């Protein structure tokens, strides 16, 4: 929904201008910006309030050299180790075919036995496989109403997993520095000693909502096999209880941004924000100017991947890159 994949080249230019050695991706999401930071030679800390972004960061940023072997992939895609059926029972008739749901349970029976780094790689591949198989990659619908005939919607999850595992293996490299991934509230993070802070908070839209849990609850649950999660059994989609963030609401987002900028006032701040959201660019610039002498705004035309139908007018937006030095 909010992936920054398409604006990574613009962010790379900004980061190259800023320089520095240490960086924080405070709302890491898909992990593409944190991965960019690692590729550019930063010592990276990532944070997100959801579990599956942290798993992805551990697999691709923290991980320097561990890969899934062909034997690992074959084992995970093979017969179940313990006969578990939680996903088959809980999501009976939802999202995937019976064979796909059986595979997810079986895969986790082996993932549970892997050493930690291989486990992170395998979970990341499993999450990506599930996202690719689900129409539009979001779990707000339970049928194939958005079936556009793509190969991804036809390929069994077991085969998806083989492909995504290979893709994640290809991403692993060592930049010679230690990194870490955190799951938590951005306001609880230490602010000292960070040269570059990248902020991509949830956007507060004028209408509708930006609830990541509503759209990605299945991926969040899958990343931990629903341990410690509360499923809302009365919902059609079996979604998880929503986590509160002040950035999601028009009445609280402005003060939350002010607190955020004040917290990281001693670092160079780079903020991504959308013209589809509130507050507007002028307000954000003024907020940054409260703690930064030099505030620059760059504009990038952007098409969001969420809502790929041609009538989804809110897909088209300007992405603002605010730079506070």
From TrEMBL:
Lineage, top ranks: Bacteria, Bacillati, Actinomycetota, Actinomycetes, Jiangellales
Record bears the keyword S-adenosyl-L-methionine: yes
EC number assigned by the record: 2.1.1.72
Protein name, per record: site-specific DNA-methyltransferase (adenine-specific)
GO biological process, alphabetically ordered: DNA restriction-modification system; methylation
EC primary class: transferase
Record flagged with keyword Transport: no
Cross-referenced InterPro entries: DNA_methylase_N6_adenine_CS, MeTrfase_D12, SAM-dependent_MTases_sf
Pfam families hit by this protein: MethyltransfD12 (PF02086)
Keywords, sorted A to Z: Methyltransferase, S-adenosyl-L-methionine, Transferase
Organism field: Jiangella asiatica
Catalytic activity line of the entry: a 2'-deoxyadenosine in DNA + S-adenosyl-L-methionine = an N(6)-methyl-2'-deoxyadenosine in DNA + S-adenosyl-L-homocysteine + H(+)
GO molecular function list: nucleic acid binding; site-specific DNA-methyltransferase (adenine-specific) activity
Gene3D superfamilies noted in UniProt: Vaccinia Virus protein VP39 (3.40.50.150)
């Amino acid at each position: 929904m909010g992936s920054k994949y398409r604006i990574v080249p613009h962010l790379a230019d900004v980061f190259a201008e800023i320089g520095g050695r240490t960086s924080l991706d405070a709302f890491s999401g898909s992990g593409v910006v944190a991965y960019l930071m690692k590729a550019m030679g930063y010592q990276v800390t990532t944070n997100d309030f959801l579990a599956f972004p942290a798993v992805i960061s551990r697999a691709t940023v923290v991980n320097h050299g561990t890969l899934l072997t062909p034997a690992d992939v074959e084992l995970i895609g093979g017969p179940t180790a313990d006969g578990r059926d939680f996903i088959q029972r809980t999501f009976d008739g939802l999202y995937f075919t019976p064979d796909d749901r059986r595979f997810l349970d079986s895969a986790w029976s082996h993932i549970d036995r892997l050493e930690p780094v291989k486990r992170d790689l395998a979970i990341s591949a499993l999450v990506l496989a599930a996202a690719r198989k689900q129409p539009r990659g979001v779990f707000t619908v339970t049928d194939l109403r958005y079936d556009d005939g793509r190969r991804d919607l036809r390929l069994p999850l077991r085969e998806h997993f083989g492909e995504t595992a290979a893709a994640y293996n290809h991403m692993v490299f060592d930049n010679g520095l230690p990194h870490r991934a955190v799951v938590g509230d951005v306001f609880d993070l230490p602010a000292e000693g960070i040269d570059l802070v990248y902020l991509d908070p949830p956007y507060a839209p004028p209408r509708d909502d930006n609830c990541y849990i509503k759209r990605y609850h299945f991926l969040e649950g899958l990343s931990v096999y629903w341990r410690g999660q509360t499923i809302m059994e009365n919902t059609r989609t079996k979604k998880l209880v929503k986590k509160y963030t002040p950035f999601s609401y028009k009445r609280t987002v402005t003060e939350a941004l002010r607190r955020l900028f004040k917290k990281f006032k001693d670092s160079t701040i780079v903020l991504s924000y959308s013209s589809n959201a509130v507050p507007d660019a002028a307000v954000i610039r003024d907020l940054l100017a409260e703690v930064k002498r030099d505030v620059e705004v760059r504009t990038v035309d952007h098409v969001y991947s969420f809502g790929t139908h041609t009538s989804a007018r809110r897909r088209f937006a300007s992405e603002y890159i605010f730079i506070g030095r």
